[in-house]
């Protein structure tokens, strides 16, 4: 397993906040399969992307009646 560098955001009070769902290289964790995906692998929505990868969207939509 390769080490991960998570995105750390400095706060105004001198502290910091670490986003465990986003890596510093820009990859985002899919909220369904928990894999890190690049922006082009995420499901497009109006004006952006959602935090669900395209394969998960395809699986979810194919199982719905």
Structure write-up:
The protein is of the alpha+beta class and 65 residues long. It has one domain. It is built from one helix and six strands, in the order E-E-E-E-E-E-H. The chain has one helix at residues 54-63, and strands at residues 6-10, 16-23, 28-29, 36-37, 42-45, 48-53. The strands form three sheets. Strands 1-2 form a two-stranded antiparallel sheet. Strand 3 and strand 4 (36-37) form a beta hairpin. The longest helix is centred in the last third of the chain and has 10 residues, at 54-63. The radius of gyration is 14 Å and the shape is elongated. The relative contact order is 0.16. The model has no long low-confidence stretch (mean pLDDT 81).
Can you tag this structure with a few keywords?
65 residues, alpha+beta, two-stranded antiparallel sheet, two-stranded antiparallel ribbon, 1 helix, elongated
Low-confidence runs of at least 5 consecutive residues: none
Silhouette: elongated
Average pLDDT, to the nearest integer? 81
Q: Span between N and C termini? A: 38 Å
Biggest β-sheet: strands ordered side by side in the sheet: 1-2
Largest sheet: 2 strands, antiparallel
Number of alpha- plus pi-helical segments:
1
Number of structurally distinct domains? 1
Q: From the helix content, strand content and strand pairing, which structural class follows? A: alpha+beta
Radius of gyration: 14 Å
N to C succession of SSEs = EEEEEEH
Strand content is 35-45%
Helix proportion:
10-25%
What is the number of beta strands? 6
């Amino acid at each position: 397993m390769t080490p991960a560098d998570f995105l750390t955001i400095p706060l105004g009070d001198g502290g910091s906040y670490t986003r465990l769902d986003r890596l510093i290289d820009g990859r985002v964790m899919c909220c369904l399969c928990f894999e890190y995906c690049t922006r082009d692998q995420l499901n497009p929505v109006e004006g952006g992307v959602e935090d669900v990868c395209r394969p998960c969207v395809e699986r979810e939509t194919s199982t719905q009646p």
